Amino acid sequence: MHLSSLPFLLVLISGIFCYYDYDTGYYPDPDDPYVHSMMGPSTAVCAPECNCPETYPSAMYCDDLKLKSIPIVPAGIKYLYLRNNMIEGIEENTFDNVTDLQWLILDHNHLENSKIKGRVFSKLKSLKKLHINYNNLTEAVGPLANTMDDLQLSHNKITKVSANVLEGLVNLTVFHLQNNQLKTDSVSGALKGLKSLLYLDLSFNQLTKLPKGLPPALLMLYFNNNQITNIPDEYFQGLKALQYLHLSHNRLTDGGIPGNVFNISSLVELDLSFNMLKSIPTVNENLENFYLQVNQINKFPLSSFCKVVGPLTYSRVQHLRLDGNNLTRSDLPQEMYNCLRVAADISLE
């Protein structure tokens, strides 16, 4: 990774994975609201079954209480946590006392679209984070305030994302839609108005083609575990900032990948593992991490990595995975070390 981009990426990634990364075990900063959920007694201005720490009185924690409905939320609460309950619906007047709510975390409940009444979320004019992961939604929820920067709807049953639901979300930077039942035609065009979107995860869906109309600011893009067979020519050319692209566990073949589709100068990491490729696609010399394990690759053309080899023209690939293919060390050309001169790890077995 280029050192100049490191500070920005650290800030971005902390915003993406902070608090709710179930896999990495991330521990939040001591000044964040999450930490105060277990510190000290509750304030008087709080729902009796919940906890509003004296050290952070604007946060209300109602996690793991087997709640079937959302309790009365007192004025002054800005961060509301309702994880791991049995909530099925939200009444239209639920948040009338807290229209300035900024975070609403509803992961691991039983929410259904039909039981979310009226335009309950549109009243929250200051809402920034809305997490409804691990519920029973069949459509993306909305409309939402244009203050939103983080929307997480993973692990639901969503088959549809309507363009009008996402309309006006010009500040949205993070959108989690992985582990749903989305098809290509249910996503195409719905995302194009998200002008600030940096992170989009559509992994573990039912996409057979890449959706049209992706926002141009995207930095991280994930399509793992779908049924994608081909990539349109110049599909990524409008994504001038794209650095991380994952397409593992799809049905990509050589015929489905145009010659220069991955020749993206901004790209740092490309994952094409667990597909059906027989040759190595051409990539830009700036690529640093390239994952091709478990394909059917049987040749190693240097032209995939270097058009010209010289003092300043060589591949920046540091990590290259080719294990699970039809290649051995003897298949690698000796001159590859002039091209892959900074490679620290080339895996073949």
Automatic annotation (TrEMBL):
One of its GO terms (molecular function) is collagen binding. One of its GO terms (cellular component) is extracellular space. Residues 1-18 form the signal peptide. Transmembrane segments: none annotated. Residues 45-79 form the LRRNT domain. It is found in: Secreted, Extracellular space, Extracellular matrix. Keywords: Disulfide bond, Extracellular matrix, Glycoprotein, Leucine-rich repeat, Proteoglycan, Pyrrolidone carboxylic acid, Repeat, Secreted, Signal, Sulfation. SUPFAM superfamilies: L domain-like. GO terms for biological process: positive regulation of transcription by RNA polymerase II; positive regulation of transforming growth factor beta1 production. Binds to laminin. Belongs to the small leucine-rich proteoglycan (SLRP) family. SLRP class II subfamily. This is Lumican.
